[in-house]
Write a structure and sequence with these properties.
Blueprint lengths: L2 E7 L1 H4 L7 H20 L2 E7 L2 H10 L5 H26 L5 E4 L3 E3 L12 E3 L5 H6 L4 E3 L4 E5 L6 E2 L2 H9 L2 E4 L6 E6 L2 E4 L6 H12 L3 E5 L5 E3 L7 E3 L1 E3 H9 L8 H14 L4 E5 L4 H6 L4 E4 L1
Parallel strand pairs: 1-2, 1-12, 2-9, 3-9, 4-10, 12-16, 15-17
Antiparallel strand pairs: 4-8, 5-7, 6-7, 10-11, 13-14, 16-17
Length: 300
C-alpha cells in the first residue's frame, strides 16, 4: 500500500526575499522537482504545500486596494501553476502515471486568535530605510533585514480537505494549502476572508495529521536543525527528541519569525500521528533525510 508524504516548500525557496538571482530559485525548484520524482519512484504518494511570503508581500505593495486574502489566493494559483507545469513535464519524460492537481485551499481561523493582535509573519522583500520610515505597516527585523509582518493566526480547519483526499486517492500529486491557505472566518451562515497569512508549516502539519500521513518533510534553506546557530557552540542535530526540541524552544534557540514555527510544527506531527517520520531538510535531500542520512528527524 502506498505511503503518503506531505512535502512543504518555503516561499523563499521559490523567490528570495532579498531579490536574489532568479537562477538560484530555478535551481531550488529543480531540486524540489527531483525530490518529488524520487519520492514517487520510492513508492510515496506526494502532497506538495508551499509558502508565499516574498510573493504575497510584493503583490500587496503594488496594489493596496486588493485584500490580503485575495492576494493569498492569487499566489496559490501562480505558484501552483509553476510547480504543476514543471512537474508535468518531468512526469511525461519519465513516463510516470501520475498527474498534478492544484487545489485552491481555504482554511478557517479564529477571529479572536491572538495572531491578529501580534503580527509576526514576514512578507515581501527587505525594506529600504525610506520604506521603514514612511510606510504604515507593522515591521520587524529579520536575519536578512527589516520586513513587513502581518497577522498569522493558527489554522483550525481545512475546508477543502475531502477534495484533497479524493485527489490523492486518484493518484494525483496534489499541490495545495499554498501560502498557508486562504484565511477565512465563519460569519453566521457564510465564510469571509480575513487579512492574514497563515504559517504554511503549521498548516502542513494540520494536513499531515488530518490525513494521517506517514511522513512530513519541511524543506528549507537550512540543511538541518542547529542550536547555537552562528556561534562557536553551534551543534547540528541529525535527530532531536520532542523533549529536547521543546527545551530549546523555551530557551529561545528557534526564533518565532524563522525556525520556531518549523520545529513546533514537526513536534506537533510526532505528537499526533503514531509512527510518522517528521523531518527538516534542504531541497534535494528528501530521500536521504527519510533514511536518516541528512537533515533532522524529530523523535519521541
Amino acid at each position: 500500500m502506498s505511503r503518503t508524504v506531505v512535502y512543504a516548500i518555503g516561499g523563499n525557496a521559490l523567490s528570495s526575499p532579498t531579490g536574489g538571482d532568479i537562477r538560484d530559485s530555478a535551481l531550488v525548484l529543480a531540486k524540489v522537482i527531483s525530490d518529488v520524482v524520487d519520492l514517487l519512484e520510492a513508492g510515496w504518494r506526494v502532497i506538495l504545500t508551499h509558502g508565499n511570503g516574498p510573493q504575497v508581500g510584493h503583490l500587496m505593495s503594488l496594489d493596496k486596494s486588493t485584500s490580503m486574502d485575495e492576494w493569498v489566493a492569487a499566489t496559490q494559483g501562480m505558484i501552483g501553476h509553476s510547480l504543476s507545469i514543471n512537474l508535468e513535464s518531468i512526469l511525461r519524460k519519465r513516463s510516470r502515471p501520475e498527474s498534478t492537481a492544484v487545489v485552491l485551499t481555504r482554511v478557517e481561523v479564529d477571529e479572536n486568535d491572538r495572531g491578529f493582535q501580534f503580527p509576526t509573519k514576514p512578507v515581501g522583500p527587505i525594506l529600504s530605510d525610506q520604506q521603514v520610515m514612511s510606510e504604515d505597516w507593522n515591521i520587524a527585523e529579520t536575519k536578512q533585514g527589516p520586513r513587513r509582518v502581518v497577522a498569522s493566526p493558527l489554522p483550525k480547519r481545512i475546508l477543502d480537505l475531502e477534495v484533497i483526499k479524493a485527489l490523492v486517492a486518484e493518484n494525483a500529486i496534489v499541490i495545495c494549502c499554498g501560502g498557508g491557505g486562504i484565511p477565512v472566518i465563519h460569519n453566521t451562515d457564510h465564510y469571509v476572508g480575513v487579512p492574514a497569512v497563515i504559517d504554511k508549516d503549521r498548516l502542513s502539519t494540520l494536513l499531515a495529521i488530518e490525513i494521517e500521513a506517514e511522513a512530513l518533510i519541511i524543506s528549507t534553506a537550512i540543511d538541518a536543525i542547529r542550536t547555537g546557530f552562528g556561534t562557536s557552540d553551534e551543534v547540528i542535530h541529525s535527530t532531536l527528541s520532542v523533549a529536547d526540541a521543546k527545551k530549546y524552544i523555551a530557551e529561545g534557540e528557534f526564533p518565532s519569525g524563522s525556525m520556531g514555527p518549523k520545529v513546533e510544527s514537526l513536534i506537533d506531527a510526532v505528537e499526533h500521528v503514531e509512527g510518522i517520520k517528521s523531518l527538516l531538510c534542504q531541497p534535494g535531500d528528501a530521500i536521504k533525510a527519510l533514511r536518516g542520512d541528512s537533515g533532522t528527524i524529530i523523535t519521541k
